[in-house]
Structure formats: structure tokens, C-alpha cells
Amino acid sequence: MQRRDLLLAFGGVSAMPVSSGRPLAEPFFKRTPRPNILVFFSDDHARWLQQAYGNSEVRTPNMQRLAQRGVRMTNAFTTSPVCSPSRASFFTGRMPSQHGIHDWIEEKRQAYAYPWLEGEILLPELLKKAGYRTGLVGKWHCGAERIPHRGFDHWYSYWVSQYPHTGVQNFSDNGRHVQVEGCQAPFLTEQAIRFLRSEQGLFRSDRKPFFLFVGYTDTHSPHSDMPPELVESYAGASFIDIPKEQFSAIHGVAERPVDRNSGTEREKRMQYYAAATAIDREVGRILDELDHLGEADNTFIVYTSDHGLNAGHHGIWEKGNATRPQNFFEESIRVPCTISWPAGKILANRSDHSIFNHCDLFATLLDVAGAAPDAAAAAAINSPGRSHLAALQDLTAPPAQKPVICEYGNARMILCNQYKLILRYPYGGKVFPHEFYDLALDPRETRNMFTRPQHTPHVLQMTQMMNRFFDRYSIPARSGLNLESQPLATTESPWLLALKKSPQTQPPP
Question: Does pTM top 0.85 for this prediction?
Fold first, then answer.
């Protein structure tokens, strides 16, 4: 399908990703010296749990500091509301139906049972080819954690899994087993600082720009074991920013419902808020180190997360797999994303309302680094992402408005303006009903309007838009519509759990 055809299929220039930035094969400009790149990529940190996004009680001053020094993306989304697929989208610039990871990868067995992301062109590989020193500290979750992966000069991840948040910690230091005891996040910060000092040493004769990915996990369940002083600091919190809601039967079954014990529920929320503050404290340490090294003004910094999280929203806890079938609630798919590049390189203390996701971030980082792949590699990647760098430097242009498209296994979602459509496809002969919401009239997604005649034109148009998107950005052997023939990531996938009961059936449109 040609570029013009795609634009028309998606309702014109403003509706399609190709209109929102430069394609991968066209770098913005060459930079000498190239900027450093620092990406904080936290786990399960919902957009609503940040001061910068209006939360009235959580304390995240360093994340706020990034927002004040740069741009706050108000419409940033995940490609999939669960860990591994969204992380893989960041590292590859591709949708799950392209890279083939459709659910969180069980770390002890399944991570080693299959060569996940084999054959993919990874972001650190492209940056390293462009002259960057590259490092990962913290969560990878796109396959085996203990094994250093392609493109990384430095690797400090988990030996088995990300647990626990505190206690005996098992890390992989470039493939060597290291065991320490204490809170996990400060150890990761120390390793990030170790990388910065070794890679950016003032007396290096071969000094290069760096790319550092820091993956904290404190905001991931279990919501416990945070520093006691931080938990206690939320003892008086009202948690007014979390709506009091009951789970609606139209969403199927709540796998992780709100606990009826109010004391337990309050403790979990205190822990979750404390986790955000704990991560914020570590972010501050790394930002201070950049200042100390004199590299702050030449470092492009991003704070984001893999997906969102519900903490009582809709009567549930967790993300897309908190329900059966999987959900695409706004709290599950929206992520924080603040981008800072000091010294006037991008606008400061501004908000950008453009639609933006992990694939767009992949393209933007390559643009910042002047590391766009050649035409052959760009064609092989075939990313739907587009660089947003030009817009970050000139927010006078209208925000890029394109459909938000997410997928999670055998379900796909498209969000256009006020309308959200979720299409569900069979697995093992079972299929759940499709869903359609008018978020302007029903922002809490309580009334499924899929069968209402007045919305039939919207459903048909959005179905065509989404089908055309996946015609271009999917590989049949890796598609979420062909899960039965693909490697198993976890036995806890919603489509596997659905086989234990008989849901309603409805053929796809």
C-alpha cells in the first residue's frame, strides 16, 4: 500500500502516523558532538500518579523538574497494556504483531525457552553503530534477563526476575551473578552512576556520547516493601485522585478486583504512592550526577513507563490483564512521558497534546542521535513510529492527531477523538464481545455501545482504519490473531484463562 493510500485510508493527513514526523530513513540533522540520551522507563507507573499530570497528593519533584525543564506529553500511550510487549515496542519500534511478543514473559522458564526478539533490529544496536556507548540498568523483560543482549556495552539486569523490591537481590552484572541485600532501586541507581562515570570519564581519550536505559520496578506489584518512611509519609493521604468505582459486569471478570478490606486497600495505595516517590528520589540522584559531570545540558532525557495501572479505578487493580477478557481502560493504556533537553534545545515548561507512543519514541531517539537506519534497515523495521523532535522544538504547530492503536494478544483497540473501539478475536474457539465507548459522554467506560445503531458508521469506519493499519504493521506468523501457533510467554495470558470458562460468543465484524 502506498503512502497516499494509507493517508486516505486513515481519514486524511492528520489521522495517520506518517503525517506526524519524518520517516526513519530521513534524519533531522547531523550533530557534532551528538547528545547523550538517558531514558527512565519505569514499570506500571500510571500517568495519573505524577505531580506533572495533576495528581494532588503524590510527591514526585524530580519528575516535575523534568517536566518544567522540558515538554510534558499529555497524550502518550503504550502499544500494549502489559510489560513485555510494550518494552519490545520501545526497543524495536514495532507493534506486538510485528515483533511477536504478546504478553509478559515468565522469567524463570519461558524467558529461556525461546529466542525472543531474534532477528529484530534493536535501538541500542542502531545507536552503537552511530558511535554511542550503550548501557541498560534494571528491567529488560524481553527475554532472558541474565544474558547481556545485542547492542549493549554494559548490562546490569536481573539474574532471575525483578523480585523482590527489598531483601536479597540477584543481579546480572554483564552476565556475572551478583548478590546484594537491601532496597533494589538504590542499587540500580548506583549502577547507573557507575556507567555514567565510566563512560563519561573526563580523562577518556575515546569519549563518546552515551545511551543509558534505566528500568526501575518499584511501582510494579506486589505493592509492598517500600521504604517505611515513604509509606508513612502517605498515612494522611485521602487518595482523592482515585475515583471510587465498582467493577462493571460488561467488562467480563475482574481477575484483580479491589479488596473489600478497606485497610488492605489503603495500605496498597500508600505503597504504590511511596513507590513513585522512591523512584523519583533515585531519578534525582542520577540527574544530580549528570550535573556533577557537566553533562546535563547535553543530555536528552525521557521519563516514561511501559503502561499504566489501575489502583481502584473501575473497581480493579493492575493493568490490561486485570480483567478477563483483557482491558484497554484509559488508566491501563496512558503513560507519563516527559522529555527534557536543556540549554534551549527544546522548549521548556510546555505541554504537547500530540498522540505519541513507544514506537514514536523509538523514532525520536534515533532522530536526536542522528542515527537513522539506512533504507534497507528502515524497510526491515517497518516502524509505524515517527520522530517528534521537530515538534518538540516548535510547539506552535498544531498537535499531531492520529488514531491511538493498541493491541494485547487477540484483542485490538483504536481510539479516535472521543470514540474507542475494541475488537476481540477467537482463541481456542472462544471469543468475547466487541466494545465501543463514547468517551465524551461516558468517560469511565461504563456503557458498551457496540450494538447501538447510531454508532454503526463509527464502528465500520474505525474497523477499516484499524484493519488497514495492521495490514501494513503486522507479520502473519507473529500476529495477535494467530496466537495458537506462537511461542508461549506465560500460562496466565487472558486468552488462555478464558478457555477455562465459556464466555459469550460473537463473530468479529
Answer: yes
